[in-house]
Amino acid sequence: MSAFIYCLNASTIRPTPILDKIRIAGETGYAAIELWHDEIEAYVAAGGKLMDIRKALDDQRLQLPTTIYLRGWCDTTGAEHAAGLDECKKRLEDAAKLGAIYSIASPAGGKVDVALAARNYAELLTLGLSFGVKPAMEYLGFVEQINTIESALEIMNLSKHPEATIVVDPFHNFRGGGPFSSLSLLRGDQIAISHFNDSPASPPREQQHDHSRVLPGQGHCDLKQWLGLLKQAGYKRWLSLELFREDLWARDPKEVARIGLESMKAVAEA
């Protein structure tokens, strides 16, 4: 029996239409799915309705832990910031209608004024909570500055917002050069979700990107340590399989989802 809830990040079977993704997640045994706003918006632009997506989630009895992602908020000011917040507001509104708990707030790619980012994150949290959705701070191992748990946690702490949370990810820890032991800096209630994946030993970490991720247990990362530290922090919620592999996208998505769930269980329940 796992201490965690198994979730499918929709990126893992990305070319599949959104309603099929939801059906596949439910039919293969996941309890939750993460959805991407670009796919949600494309579905609506083609004539679909948000409530079609909500009904599909309800029919499969799937939780929606997060929607992905919020941008344009982190290091912007003036008119650029206002435009970014307008998009964030629309996405948060959509997330709320779909029943999402969190929406992932992605960092800027370059150097960041941390004090500004903290103020902007507090503002974004207040905006999200007005819809009933919590923006969760993300770090990305391949960006210049906000690439470790420590760098994201600094923004969270400086925001002084009681609802500040973080998205953690073993690939991004490895890619950003942060040790898995950084998880010990977090309380369980500060972790919105744990993405789950593995990373190959080569090429060198500085050359790896999203497409480099592999299924849990197929890389060199100490995922047992990762899971142990999550448990020590008191986190017992979602493990979300997040891959971006074109070789998997070319395969039967239901088979990929099934293999992914088996891979997560093999690591988490060993």
Chart the SSEs and their pairings.
Elements: E1 5-9, H1 18-27, E2 32-36, H2 37-45, H3 50-59, E3 66-70, H4 78-98, E4 102-105, H5 114-131, E5 134-138, H6 149-159, E6 166-168, H7 170-176, E7 191-196, H8 223-233, E8 238-241, H9 246-249, H10 253-268
Helix pairs in contact: 1-3, 4-5, 5-6
Task: Provide a compact summary of the structure.
The protein has 270 residues and is an alpha/beta fold. It is 43% helix and 14% strand. Strands 1-2-3-4-5-6-7-8 form an eight-stranded parallel beta barrel, surrounded by seven helices.
Tell me what the structure shows:
The chain is of the alpha/beta class. Strands 1-2-3-4-5-6-7-8 form an eight-stranded parallel beta barrel, surrounded by seven helices. It is globular, with a radius of gyration of 17 Å. It has one domain: Divalent-metal-dependent TIM barrel enzymes (TIM Barrel), CATH 3.20.20. The chain is 43% helix and 14% strand. Strand 1, helix 1 and strand 2 form a beta-alpha-beta unit. The longest helix is centred in the N-terminal third of the chain and has 21 residues, at 78-98.
Spell out the key features of this protein:
10 helices, alpha/beta, 8 strands, globular, TIM Barrel, 8-stranded parallel barrel, single chain, 270 residues
